[in-house]
Every structure is written in structure tokens, then in C-alpha cells.
Write a structure and sequence with these properties.
- The chain has 128 residues and is mainly alpha-helical.
- It is 70% helix and 0% strand.
- The protein is elongated, with a radius of gyration of 21 Å.
């Protein structure tokens, strides 16, 4: 998985390029120093204050907002992610014992785990 900071940096860099905006112009519009902008655009945004990233995004016409994901969609996404992780662990253990499961059995295991996670305890769903 790509870290979120790199995704944001890539979007900001692509937007700057598409606009044809120079780094000095972006610095003037955002009020953020050129060295900080260069760190943000190069994927080093994790070392930059969030307000600086937000100012650069705003200057590029990409305001950072907190667009919430529907709670049920988020729960389903997490249940699917966790179910696939559980199934991979079972598959890996079975393979070590030379008893790997076939694709259909693997998919069935993912689906069963997915539904059990959604029906079960919220703590179990969100535990690591």
C-alpha cells in the first residue's frame, strides 16, 4: 500500500504541472516557503505541518477536506481487508503443511470470515 503522504504529494505535483505553476508562484500563492513546497511535492509531506500541505493544496484548487466515508462502507471495507488477511494466513499455514486450499475454498473462507466479522463484535473487527 502506498503511504497517504505520497499519494497526496503525487496529486499536488500533478496538479501543479497541469496548471503550469512554478514553485515560486505556488509559494507566493500559498504563503509556504519554496523548500517546504519542494518537500511536499517530493513525497516528504510527512515531515511538514498539515497546515502547510493544506495551504499548498488550496493554492492549487484542491482543498483538503474530511469527506467521511459512510460508516457501513468503512466497516465492510475493513471486514473484507481483515478476512483476506485471515485467509492468507490460513493458506500460508496450509501450504507449509503441503495442504494448500484451492481457489474456491480460499474465496469461501474469505466470504465466511467477512460475514463473521461484520456480524460479530466491533472490537474484533477493528483489532489488529
Amino acid at each position: 500500500m502506498v503511504p497517504m503522504a505520497h499519494t497526496i504529494s503525487a496529486q499536488l505535483a500533478a496538479r501543479r504541472e497541469a496548471l503550469g505553476m512554478t514553485i515560486p508562484a505556488l509559494a507566493a500563492r500559498s504563503g509556504v516557503s519554496e523548500p517546504t513546497i519542494k518537500r511536499i511535492l517530493s513525497g516528504q509531506a510527512g515531515r511538514v505541518a498539515l497546515d502547510a500541505v493544506a495551504a499548498v493544496a488550496q493554492a492549487l484548487g484542491l482543498p483538503l477536506g474530511l469527506d467521511p466515508i459512510d460508516i457501513e462502507t468503512l466497516r465492510e471495507r475493513e471486514a473484507r481487508r481483515k478476512a483476506e488477511r485471515i485467509a492468507r494466513m490460513v493458506q500460508g499455514t496450509s501450504a507449509l503443511e503441503s495442504q494448500a486450499v484451492d481457489d474456491a475454498t480460499y474465496r469461501a473462507l474469505v466470504e465466511r470470515s467477512y460475514h463473521e466479522l461484520l456480524a460479530g463484535s466491533k472490537r474484533r473487527l477493528w483489532s489488529v
